[in-house]
């Protein structure tokens, strides 16, 4: 189906929907208000919502949908906080706590580099004692493995913790990390911004204003980052809209967010009374509202670790244009009950994207294109757009060779 044809059908479907006035706004490029976003969340017309979000996505990203070859790495799960939703953190007295040396991290990174990754995604708990030099040390050691490897490290909450431990201003901490080789900040730690929700699910965690200020400072230094929202627990729909409003506001100011990643809540092994994850409807609706309301974001990621690959694939028809990455080893969501596998093979990400009627694109940390795959063939690259820091560390000609296991 041509782009033109699909837009006509979308227009037809939306004219007969309860959302027709909002559809008119989106089609005219008029920004949606918070009241509009709330109506979208409350709508029962999921198909119309998906059609509208797909229209907004296609305008921005065409028919392309991306993935990244990456590896997750947790340097430690020791944490001074005890967020009620968290199943990952441990205290020093716990037997299953861990902390990796820089050498251990380098060994894991070296294995992943051999598989073709372009990014390491590194986070941990708020460790009580490790010195600041530990963090700059592992960044330098990992960057020394290959200068093209992109290091996406630390949540804003970790940055605040490390600044506090090292008694340095946040700006100085970020500059030192940048100098060591940090490419981007991760988006974790946002949870839900509303103070009453934060108090309930993450007592003691830094506020929304503090989270946003770290990202603002990083963006002012020329850095890029992603941002998140952990949804489907005790928050209201109004709280979700308020969260998105604050992200859109900072993006208007800095344009430093490369993408938004909605994270479905996982219910196991934590202290929250909510013992179910969001429904499929809720996941798709949240994806679609994010695409429509966050009109200044280029990319919305469907996080397969939390959604499962099948639901993430469907989300490509509800506004998402990215499936995240190969991951290889994930702890945080799986300790909280995620049923997805530990890794995805590149060929399965490509297959999922193709089946959704999209053109697969291998991207780098900044969502820049590395490879554009043929729409239908299973093994053909039609364009390679690598250059400078965006280039893959090891180029793999065949899709089955990339992600181990
Ligand atoms: S969510 Fe992060 S800050 Fe909170 S307890 Fe878990 S590791 Fe610590």
Describe this structure in words.
There is one protein chain. This protein has 405 residues and is α/β, with parallel strands linked by helices. The protein has a single domain (64-401), classed as TIM Barrel (Alpha-Beta Barrel). Helix content is 42%, strand content 14%. It has 16 helices and eleven strands. The protein has helices at 3-15, 20-27, 34-42, 46-61, 102-114, 132-145, 156-166, 170-180, 195-201, 208-220, 237-254, 280-293, 304-307, 309-315, 332-335, 346-355, and strands spanning 64-68, 70-74, 119-123, 150-153, 182-185, 224-231, 257-264, 322-325, 359-363, 369-373, 381-384. The strands form two sheets. It has a six-stranded parallel beta sheet. The protein has a five-stranded mixed beta sheet with strand order 8-1-9-10-11, with helices on one face. A hairpin with a 7-residue loop joins strand 10 (369-373) and strand 11. The two termini are 37 Å apart. Mean pLDDT is 91; it is low at 1-5 and 387-405. The site of iron/sulfur cluster (SF4) has 11 residues, from loops.
């Amino acid at each position: 189906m041509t782009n033109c044809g699909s837009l006509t059908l979308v227009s037809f479907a939306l004219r007969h929907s309860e959302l027709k006035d909002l559809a008119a706004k989106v089609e005219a490029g008029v920004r949606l208000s918070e009241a509009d976003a709330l109506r979208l969340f409350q709508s029962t017309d999921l198909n119309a919502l998906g059609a509208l979000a797909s229209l907004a996505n296609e305008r921005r990203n065409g028919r392309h949908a991306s993935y990244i070859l990456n590896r997750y790495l947790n340097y430690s799960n020791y944490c001074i906080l005890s967020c009620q939703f968290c199943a990952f953190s441990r205290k020093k007295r716990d037997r299953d706590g861990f902390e990796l040396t820089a050498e251990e991290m380098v060994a894991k990174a070296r294995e992943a580099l051999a598989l073709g990754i372009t990014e390491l995604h590194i986070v941990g708990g708020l460790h009580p004692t490790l010195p600041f030099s530990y963090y700059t040390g592992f960044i330098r050691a990992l960057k020394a493995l290959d200068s093209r490897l992109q290091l996406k490290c630390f949540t804003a909450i970790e940055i605040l913790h490390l600044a506090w431990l090292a008694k340095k201003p946040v700006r100085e901490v970020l500059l030192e990390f940048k100098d060591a080789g940090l490419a981007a900040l991760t988006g974790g730690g946002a949870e839900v911004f509303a103070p009453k929700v934060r108090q309930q699910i993450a007592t003691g965690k830094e506020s929304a204003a503090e989270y946003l200020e770290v990202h603002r400072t990083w963006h002012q230094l020329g850095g890029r980052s992603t941002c998140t929202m952990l949804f489907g627990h005790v928050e209201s729909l109004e709280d979700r809209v308020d969260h998105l409003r604050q992200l859109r506001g900072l993006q208007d100011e800095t344009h430093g967010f490369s993408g938004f990643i909605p994270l479905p809540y996982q219910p196991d092994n934590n202290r929250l009374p909510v013992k179910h994850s969001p429904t499929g409807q809720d996941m798709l609706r949240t994806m679609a509202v994010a695409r429509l309301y966050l009109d200044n974001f280029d990319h919305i990621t469907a996080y397969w670790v939390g959604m499962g690959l099948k639901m993430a694939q469907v989300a490509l028809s509800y506004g998402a244009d990215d499936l995240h990455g190969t991951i290889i080893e994930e702890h945080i969501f799986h300790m909280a009950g995620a049923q997805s596998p530990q890794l995805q093979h590149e060929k399965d990400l490509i297959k999922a994207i193709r089946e959704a009627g999209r053109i697969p694109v291998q991207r780098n940390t900044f969502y820049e294109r590395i490879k554009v795959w043929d729409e239908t063939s299973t093994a053909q690259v039609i364009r390679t757009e690598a250059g400078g820091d965006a280039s893959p560390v090891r180029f793999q000609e065949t899709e089955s060779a990339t992600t181990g296991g």
